[in-house]
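User: Fold this, then the next.

Assistant: Folding the first:
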Amino acid sequence: MKTMWKAALLAGAAWGAASNLAVAQEQATTEQGVGVEEVVVTARRREETLKDVPVAVSAYGAAALERMGASDITSLQQSTPNLTLQVARGSNSTLISFIRGVGQQDPLWGFEPGVGLYVDDVYIARPQGAVLDVFDIERIEVLRGPQGTLYGRNTIGGAVKYVTRKIGPEPELRLKASLGSYDQRDFLVSAKAPIGDKLAVSFAAASFDHDGYGKNLNTGAEHYDKDVATGRVSVEYTPTDALFFRLSADTTRDKSNPRHGHREVQALNILGQPIPGGEVLPDVYDTRAGSGDTNRVENSGVSLLGQWTINDLITVKSITAYRSGNTEGTIDFDELPGAYLDIPGRYNDHQFSQEFQALFTGDRWQGVAGVYYMNATAAGAFDTVVSQINTTIATAGNVDTESYSAFADVSYDLTERLSVSVGGRMTRDEKYGRVYRQNFTGIRSPLFGNNAAVPGLLRSSFTNKKTFSKFTPRLSAKYEISDDLNAYVSYSQGFKSGGFDMRSDQILTPNSADGYEPETVDSFEGGLKGYFFDRRLSLNTAVFYSKYKDMQVTQQTPVGASIASQVLNVGRAHMSGFEVEGVAKLAHWVSANVSLGYIKAEFDEYKALDLTSTPPVVRDFSNSRVFQNTPKWTGNFGLNFSHDLGDNGSITFTPTASYRSSYHMFEIPSALDQGSYWLYDASLIWTSAQGRYKAALTGKNLGDERYRIGGYNFPQSAAVFYGNSVSAFYGPPRTVTASFEVKF
């Protein structure tokens, strides 16, 4: 608690000083026209200015994302406090996300994320294909801390909201082309047009391509390349002033080559001798993987929004959506031509969701209430191929989920300055799981084309059904210190339901068929938001303290030729820290952006089955376990210079620097852990006087930093059959992109 008290004292001092500034600023005089732009968000399912929302929120509009050079949503981790948003290990478009220490590293089907991803208020249930490219977008919001009341499913750590552009009253055609490093070739075309007074249509199509940052030295294929095509179409219908409908559909296809990773140590055979060609390659983007160069990820969805404004007090909404996805690929854990540890796999999922909302607005109160339903299936199969003993372990199964919930959140103004909010959500999840796991003699099983493989020991074959229910409350109070400054305190609880481990091995872990239980987070937060110096400075701060209970942790322990997988409710932990985000308008031609996040996350209890002991026993590992993907410090600083060229348009220059302190890849420290590093970016954008033309030059990772974003750790000391497979995946190297855009 010492860190929390220190953070609270610092925040109290800052808030006290800020309160005095808020009063004093009424006496200040500033240069005419200089001020920070006000930001509008929908964090509480209704439009509010950022300072009025008693939630820690980071918001990025289309212009800010362009200045950042954000190609996909993982760019947000460089500028958002206490956020990890990265491409998952061994994939091109699977997302892992952590906020304030809460998330989900393992993207296997049936596991659910700890940070909810929403596209136009539609929940995306699976991480495959969730590394969303940034195009034709209005804004992205990152909500930190549990958001169980309004967003419900799996927002125990927070939520990321991706909001696409709406159709405006004027027709528009936009063309954009980008060329850059590694033969980057990105193209975008979008069009929006009203058809009469009541109907409007829009579409956007984009392709994103670049060569690999490295090579597969075994096959000659590109490695860390990109080959993505995506499209979106919308139809808006407004039959009356009170009714609005929006039908949207999207599809994405990713045919980038498999991302195998980089071997970090010398490969060893079963006798502990070096494997020829198994040395550490000098280029971290190169590999010698031999499990294949075929990869395909497809995702598509359709949604229908209906909105009826009954009167000035009540508006009702209906959000209906269906999504599906398929993934076929392979992960070469050993990074060698031979199949020392190869994992070919496939996934498929689909989900249907229906949400009804009622928004209420009165003189002194406002709120939202609703119900939510989701029916989803996630299925898949993979082989664990171990060639040194001519063995394959085949794994397959599925998880069906039906989720029901009802929610409400109401705010009431007790006085002109003081308001309180009360919310809650009741969730009921019904899950049905089926798991199959069996040994085969041979390289690959019949699941992946080897019908000659000889079936052996049946390791798992079970079905089970479990139901999880939880009520999660939220309370907050907000006080307007002045017209430009608000302070708030809040309590919220997050909940993620339990489930079944698709890797369950009933021989090694007999109780795994029983599944694992839900986890919860109780979070206490206080914040100060507002403007200072006659709106020259916007500042948002928060301090938080969270109790994490019944944590779900995936633990994989090599046992002979097999891997014992356990998803365990290991115990308890606590997290505390603070966050600061600010924008300062230094003059009419220059502004500064800054963000800073600090978190201290520690296990209080970590009870797990120690499979390395004989017989296996339950031990408390809390003194030797750490939080994964949770750097203690995150920070960002940027400047934005703008200059009006008169009839020749305007130009902006935006240099930025971001920092992440050292962090761990897994709960057990390893050689794969990443040290602290800085990333330096810059963009130069010219816009014509009428806004019709735009040209940009963007540089990312200008210091050409090499930093790990994931890895697999199966060293020889733990498993002699796996070729001493310790591999890592790296963030992009230095890239420079030139783009040109024209609007008609």
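Now the next one, as you asked:
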Amino acid sequence: MSGAESSGGERSDVDGIDRTPVADADVCVVGAGPAGALVADRLAGDRDVVVLDAGPRFDPDDRVARQERAIRPSYGRPDVWDVGGERDAHESAGDRFYPLNHARVKGVGGSTLHWQGMVMRLHEDDFNSGSERGVGPDWPIDYADLRPYYAAAERELGVAGASDNPYAPPREEPHPMPPFEPSYSDSLFAEACESLGIDMHSVPNARNSEPYEGRSPCVGYGTCQPVCPSGAKYDATVHVERAEERGATVIDRAPVERLEHDGDDRVTAAVYATPDGEQHRQEADAFVVAAGGVETPRLLLLSASDRYPDGLANGSGHVGEFFMDHLFAGAGGTLDEPTRQNHVGFYTSACDQFYDEANAEQAPFKLEFFNYAGPSPVESALSGDDWGDSLRDRLRSEYGNHVAMGGLVEQRPDADSRVTLADDRTDDRGNPVPRIEWTVGDRALDTIERANEIQVSILEELGADVEWVAGPDATGPAYHHMGTTRMSDDPDRGVVDADCRTHDLDNCWIASSSVFPTSGAMNPTLTIAALALRVADDVDARLSRRT
């Protein structure tokens, strides 16, 4: 660490932006992704809120240029959002390599800048996995506790969906927008699934099927992951900007290097760096760490002190442990007819029929019917060296007849799957980088085989020539970082309580999928958003009681 420390009064304006601390802040939020943005927006106006984010603000006018990067084979996915280098360095260890930088964005908006936008609620049994399935702990909250916050999160993000999924948990109101129509290839899958007695249903999307909150409806760019130029797909800049309009201060390029605390077990300041080489101390009455499932435990471990030698809020010893991700299961091939792929950059139909069959031996899993199988015409054209008629003929032969399915499988929580600090590698500020030890158990691998069996049976019923299967040996992560600061009523078994407030520090909350005790097999962002809104309400209530 380098640079002088200050707690206000000096400008930090290497690029003309004031990054000095905010005086008399009520709440300091670390991270401007979806959780941090929602907390800031919920509290702004009534509270003085400051948000610190390690990455930059991205100009929305640059999104078309980023889309062009995304469709060119010469660019890797991290290049689209300027990920990489010493700032984003990490180490991977354990049973499986974890490609952390492949799917994270460090900047205002966070991972929602490049996510696909699928927003499902966890099932009721996901909150009681230990009791109902014999795997992992029960959450200290249940579905009923989060149900009103799920509804609020759907309104905040803007979710298009229907109530046609007979396997989904109970709802209290329709989705804010109507669902997207099933795609052309969904209609092909539907015939095969009907023959096999497999149910298909629509998928809730955090993208606009019609104008919503001043944002455009989806216009079909097809590059949703990793960039939506139209703004139809939700990203956290929506709530960052709204929070700023309501009085919040958002400071970008301000990586928090440690949290300081006093003798009363209260966090007193977030120490952050700025591009000019200075360090500053942001003081506040309450702190919300919303830096994701990897950077959140890293920050707590970097904040070790004499009182907390193993890391801040780590009296249980569990900070960084139980790192989980969803495992991918998939299969695909070709048909002797057009399938109209890559017209839609997200999937519009899924199957949760087998989800609640989960037990100690089989993990919950869901199936997805893809609309983007095979190469896009642009990708094919830019990766070849032919021209004219030859190019045209090759594109016709390569594009449009692919078909594929995907699926997500739950990983059992395992203390040996964890995030720690690297021993001998540092970032651009001289701080140890995160070291990920990713361990996957037999339950998940066996469940992938089960998902593959169903996927192949559907493709064969469809008449497809099955050309690939992503089974246990070829599986990879869905880049859903969960579990590293788990929630528990017992301070010896978790890092935060049922309100996501740390057991060890009474003015520090964690808003992140890192608090998930188990992961389920549903994309986590809607649950992150619901928990963030719940955290904001708890912060506000406790601040009110103090005054």
